[in-house]
Write a structure and sequence with these properties.
The complex is a heterodimer. Chain A has 4 helices and no strands. By secondary structure, chain A is mostly helical. Chain A has one domain: Non-ribosomal Peptide Synthetase Peptidyl Carrier Protein, Chain A (Orthogonal Bundle), CATH 1.10.1200.10. Chain A is globular. Chain A starts with a helix and ends with a helix. By secondary structure, chain B is an alpha/beta fold. Chain B has helices spanning about 20-25, 65-70, 75-90, 110-125, 130-135, 140-150, 165-175, 195-205, 240-245, 275-285, 300-315, 330, 340-350, and strands at about 5-10, 35, 50, 100-105, 155, 180-190, 230-240, 255-260, 290-295, 325, 355, 375, 380-385, 390-400. In chain B, strands 5-4-6-7-1-8-14-13-9-10 form a 10-stranded mixed sheet, with helices on both faces. In chain B, helix 1 packs across helix 13 and helix 10 packs across helix 11 (about 300-315). Chain B is globular, with a radius of gyration of 20 Å. The two termini of chain B are about 15 Å apart. The chains are: A mainly alpha, B alpha/beta. The interface of A and B includes residues 38, 45, 48, 57 and 58 of A.
Chain lengths: ~80, ~400
């Protein structure tokens, strides 16, 4: 599945309320941007809705950087 | 302080419209599932294949007394009133005392009726003139008092999935303090609508199972959330002991404790170390031996891990723990009402000295839970409920020994 990295970055910035430029490809949302568990659910929901996929609860940690989200989508 | 007992129990759910039927079906591991019809664009986004359908309410029983609420109330109110009438009948009562208190746990407003009226107003510029009271959550409780003619304190309790347990607890507290002799307590939930919005909502929150067979694995490595239920109702008759004895009532169980607390942590998550829940349960249990623990047991990643930690901290090893069960795996998660169903299960576990089996996967090896239904002397039981927003409540039941 082809991932639109900039769409994902904009979605994450919108949810967190930061600038797009604050989110590098390998910036960890939780550790570096203090994203909480509810915001992680919102980020995952945005990805689920855009790509019509389901992310299991046990896989949430695979979606905590732009690079990891893109990799997870490309593996599908 | 007065002693408080349960003398009537009336669940309305697909697994039974009497507490005996519900308990028997649980002990036999039965479930009632309905395949989700993905017949519109919104429903096509739901990942789950199965849900527990809303129970059938139309059996003609109490039809005359239910006429007004059926015509002008919400489904939640209708079911709450019907369950209240059934609970009184189960208790051998023709009517409730005039000063009876009524506490009904109810979470979401009546989504089906409200969303239908929004659509109708938009398309036809007309609506049911009862739209306002139908969407008042308080109307669920009001209808019970109107149909039963009770004048005591009453309230809808809205504490997410801890609502019904708390409702019973409020009845217990008030009778114990001598403010009334009888209370009707329980819950009513109806969270269905044409798009199954709440089902998808729980999927976003990673709370409900999307297992292709609708399987649920509480306290197991494979756990992936609860089975979505469209709801149901369950009301209990809670009575002052002497009042019950004077009329020769059958006493199902004695309520010997109620505690409630707030995590003050997250609108969704339980606190990961469960320290508030643990303190609440320790206060409830004291130094009593607990034979049976009906868990909140939602089979979400977090709930079952937290509950496991708390149970191990309080009781110790698997061998030292009470028998544990997770009723929601069979009944679905009826949210605000779940605690009332589970209290009825606890009372019947005491009555029958039996603990229902569980739907398990690779079960935690340090938790005293089994697939099989167990014959077991149950003199004390605890039912615990934890809700979104950090609401925690638990009730202790004991065999009535005179």
């Amino acid at each position: 599945m082809k991932a639109d990295k900039e769409f994902i970055r904009e979605s994450v910035a919108d949810i967190i309320g930061c600038e797009v430029s604050d989110i590098k490809d390998d910036t960890n949302f939780v550790k570096e941007l203090e994203v909480n568990s509810i915001q992680m659910l919102e980020i995952v929901a945005a990805v689920e809705d855009e790509y019509d996929i389901e992310v299991k609860a046990s896989d949430l940690s695979k979606y905590d950087t732009i690079d990891k989200i893109v990799s997870a989508l490309e593996e599908m | 302080m007065n002693r408080v007992v349960i003398t009537g129990m009336a669940p309305i759910c697909p697994l039974g419209n009497t507490h005996e039927e519900l308990f028997k079906n649980l002990c036999e591991g039965k479930r009632v599932l309905q395949r989700i019809d993905k017949n519109n664009a919104a429903r096509s986004k739901i990942r789950a294949e199965w849900l527990v359908p809303y129970p059938e309410l139309e059996d003609g029983k109490f039809a005359d007394r239910l006429l007004q609420v059926k015509a002008r109330g919400s489904t939640s109110a209708y079911a709450a009133v019907k369950a209240s009438l059934l609970a009184l009948e189960d208790a051998g009562l023709e009517k409730a005392d005039e000063d009876t208190m009524v506490f009904v746990g109810s979470d979401s407003f009546s989504m089906k009726e409200y969303t239908n009226e929004i659509t109708r107003f938009e398309t036809e510029q007309k609506m049911n003139i009862m739209t306002v009271p139908i969407t008042m959550q308080s109307s669920v409780d009001s209808w019970v008092t109107i149909v039963l003619g009770t004048h005591g304190r009453s309230s809808v309790l809205n504490m997410a999935c801890a609502s019904a347990t708390t409702a019973v607890g409020w009845g217990y507290d008030n009778i114990r303090a001598g403010r009334c002799k009888m209370a009707l307590c329980g819950g009513s939930t109806c969270i269905t609508d044409k798009n199954l919005t709440m089902n998808k909502g729980f999927e976003y929150l990673k709370c409900s199972t999307t297992d292709k067979d609708g399987n649920v694995y509480p306290f197991s490595e494979e756990r992936c959330g609860f089975l979505f239920s469209e709801g149901g109702a369950c009301m209990l008759v809670v009575e002052e002991l002497e009042h019950a004895l004077a009329r020769g009532a059958e006493i199902y169980a004695e309520i010997t404790g109620f505690e409630s607390s707030s995590d003050a942590y997250s609108i969704l998550s339980m606190h990961k170390d469960g320290h508030v829940i643990e303190a609440m349960l320790r206060k409830l249990i004291g130094d009593k031996k607990v034979d049976y623990y009906n868990s909140h047991g939602t089979a979400t990643l977090l709930n079952d891990e937290v509950e496991r930690t708390v149970l191990k901290n309080i009781f110790g090893s698997k061998e030292e723990q009470p028998a544990i069960s997770a009723t929601k795996a069979f009944l679905g998660h009826t949210l605000a009402t779940s605690g009332a169903f589970e209290l009825s299960v606890c009372a019947d576990s005491i009555r029958h000295n039996k603990v229902h089996g569980n739907m398990l996967g690779t079960v935690f090896n340090d938790i005293n839970i089994t697939s099989e239904t167990r014959e077991l002397q149950v003199d004390t039981a605890v039912s615990a409920s934890f809700g979104f927003g950090g609401f925690n409540s638990a009730i202790m039941l004991e065999r009535f020994k005179g």
